[in-house]
Amino acid sequence: MEKSHLKWVSLDKYFFMINLVLFGKPGAGKGTQASFLKEQFNLVHISTGDLFRNNIKNETPLGMLAKSYMDQGDLVPDQVTIDMLEAEVDQNPQAKGFIFDGFPRTEAQAGALDAFLKEKQMEISATLALEAADDVLVERLLERGKSSGRTDDQDESKIRNRFEEYNLKTAPLRDYYTKQNKFHSVNGIGSIEEITHRLTQLINSLN
Ligand code: ADP
After folding, report:
1. 109 pocket-lining for ligand 1 (C-beta < 6 Å)
2. 162 belongs to the catalytic site
3. Could you tell me the distance, in angstroms and rounded to a whole number, from the CA of residue 75 to the centre of ligand 1?
């Protein structure tokens, strides 16, 4: 009895788990879209940026460390981010799947994520990249900065530094996921609903 139940759970995970990576430059709309997709597909949304910001708000040691990097628009060191992400996944053992938003952002993070999921007989189903031109993104971020209070959104030179970090460290993940046949580009320009529709169609067409 116990054994067949376990088998069912692992088969269920194997066949039905959807684990998505939302990929795109700062301001591409990852967080906005993740909040719709998690409802639609019943997934747990993990945003590393939100986790860091919560730690900063609560003045935890992790928050203090992250803040020194985030304020400059630099990435937080890999191992710190990987440990935090893995702890968050482990806190959701009943999840039907995950949306990873803002993670992975480096090849080291992507490799660690693959290894970590494999240990749990899980894997990334697809990486969905929201595409938009830099000028549009800078405008969106400066607009967001007016109301969000995020200091990294209020200064154009910090925003440009985040783009540089992205080009240098995150952009190579395109090749990483393309080699695994998991990379999908989505036009990130349009209304929020239009973009949700594009993403939904793509997710429904997987497999
Ligand atoms: P955005 O995508 O708009 O830049 P996020 O909220 O995803 O915003 O991230 C804000 C900041 O948090 C990043 O600039 C970086 O300093 C830090 N951060 C978030 N995710 C990661 C990650 N996976 N690795 C390293 N640093 C991260």
Report:
1. yes
2. yes
3. 6
Based on the residue annotation, tell me whether 105 is a catalytic residue of this protein: yes
DSSP tag of 206 = -
Positive or negative: CA dihedral 97, 31, 160, 54: negative
E strands of the chain, at which residues? 18-23, 44-47, 97-101, 126-131, 183-187
Classify residue 33: in a domain, yes or no: yes
Length in residues, the chain: 207
Q: Which of 25, 38, 162, 169 is catalytic?
A: 162
CATH code of 91's domain? 3.40.50.300
State how many domains the chain has: 1
User: Known catalytic residue: 38?
Assistant: no
Distance between CA 120 and CA 112 in Å, rounded?
13
Q: Where are the beta strands (DSSP E) in 86-144?
A: 97-101, 126-131
pLDDT tens, position by position, 55-110: 999 999 999 999 999 999 999 999 999 999 999 999 999 999 999 999 999 999 99
Whether 150 is catalytic: yes
Query: How far apart are the CA of 101 and the centre of ligand 1, in A?
Result: 9
In a 13 Å sphere around the CA of 46, the CA atoms on its Cβ side amount to 22
**152 occurs within a structural domain:** no
User: Is the Cβ atom of 24 under 6 angstroms away from ligand 1?
Assistant: no
26 Cβ below 6 A of ligand 1: yes
Q: Percentage of the chain surpassing pLDDT 70?
A: 92
Provide the whole-model pTM.
0.90
